[in-house]
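Priority: medium. Attachment 1 of 2:
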């Protein structure tokens, strides 16, 4: 009897186990699926990265620090910061092209959204570093971007690079010089032979000087170390000296002025800061305004405009500026023709 009950208990346990196994097997079967339709479900559309309204990092390479280029950067900074979505990384090349090359390569390696080069050597470095990338380059204060190899033409740059040019009005400048010094016959030009801007400007002023009865006497230098001797030699054989936007010479303007003053002749500048720093006069552009235009062009490109089709822009409004202290030192009275010139004094902020 006990054996029979024990057998029945075992059979009952076995039956329960089999029922449980069957239930587990049934639950393991895949759930019934809705039959697929002929039209596949559409994946969510990927959003294209939109430049507008995004944030950008812009690397600015300034060839060196002197008032003209500092004013360019100030204009660029004002324009970019007004947008509210641009971070600026300003790097100074200290008037050394190799340093500018290194800075530009580092900025490209960090995949900055844009490079801006202030002055020709900095712009050339930026252009070379970004050549095989999609990083646009915008230049500021490049007198002859075609000669520098930055654009195909002023109207149609052609590559991923455009910007602003500080072409000088040499007819207006020569008119100013001949009015202030009607007896002058020769103008000295001190320039750096490796600066494409200066070579271009020299050719321009030489082409129109005969129209004003003036002779251009040129003196080339290679480095800052050449300037004292070259400036002294030049000042000894001309009636005055006209300065370009030559970065090497502008950075050593005090030496040029010292040699010219020793020879008793004035130096004419190419913009307001040079006049404030001791040049007699100039017909020059506003470099802050030039920087502003550069910054506005940069913002337009960041928002999607094509640099290749964006014409190089120039500031055409040139203003006569006269340093009254230097005018008095040379015993020159301000002619009536320049009664409305902007007047500054040496050392004025």
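Attachment 2 of 2:
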């Amino acid at each position: 009897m006990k054996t029979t009950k024990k057998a029945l208990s075992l059979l009952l346990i076995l039956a329960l186990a089999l029922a449980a196994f069957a239930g587990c097997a049934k639950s393991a079967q895949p759930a019934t699926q809705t039959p697929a339709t002929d039209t596949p479900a559409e994946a969510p559309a990927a959003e294209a990265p939109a430049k507008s309204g995004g944030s950008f990092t812009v690397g600015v390479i300034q060839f060196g620090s002197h008032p003209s280029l500092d004013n360019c950067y100030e204009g660029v900074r004002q324009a970019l910061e007004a947008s509210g979505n641009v971070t600026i990384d300003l790097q100074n090349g200290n008037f050394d092209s190799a340093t500018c090359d290194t800075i530009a390569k580092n900025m490209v390696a960090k995949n900055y959204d844009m490079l801006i080069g202030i002055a020709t050597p900095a712009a050339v470095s930026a252009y070379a570093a970004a050549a095989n990338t999609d990083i646009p380059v915008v230049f500021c204060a490049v007198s002859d971007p075609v000669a520098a190899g930055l654009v195909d033409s002023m109207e149609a740059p052609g590559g991923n690079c455009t910007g602003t040019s500080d072409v000088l009005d040499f007819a207006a400048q020569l008119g100013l010089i001949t009015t202030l010094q009607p007896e002058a016959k020769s103008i000295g030009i001190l320039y750096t032979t490796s600066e494409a801007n200066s070579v271009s400007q020299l050719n321009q002023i030489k082409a129109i000087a005969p129209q004003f009865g003036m002779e251009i006497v040129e003196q080339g230098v290679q480095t800052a170390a050449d300037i004292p001797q070259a400036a002294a030699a030049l000042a000894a054989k001309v009636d005055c000296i006209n300065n370009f936007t030559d970065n090497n010479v502008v950075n050593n303007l005090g030496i040029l002025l010292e040699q010219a003053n020793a020879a008793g002749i004035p130096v004419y500048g190419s913009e307001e800061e040079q006049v404030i720093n001791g040049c007699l006069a100039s017909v020059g552009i506003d470099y802050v305004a030039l920087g502003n235009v550069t910054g506005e062009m940069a913002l337009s490109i960041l928002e999607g405009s094509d640099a290749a089709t964006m014409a190089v822009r120039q500031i055409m409004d040139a203003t006569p500026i006269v340093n009254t202290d230097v005018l008095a030192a040379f015993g020159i009275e301000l002619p009536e023709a320049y009664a409305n010139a902007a007047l500054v004094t040496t050392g004025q902020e």
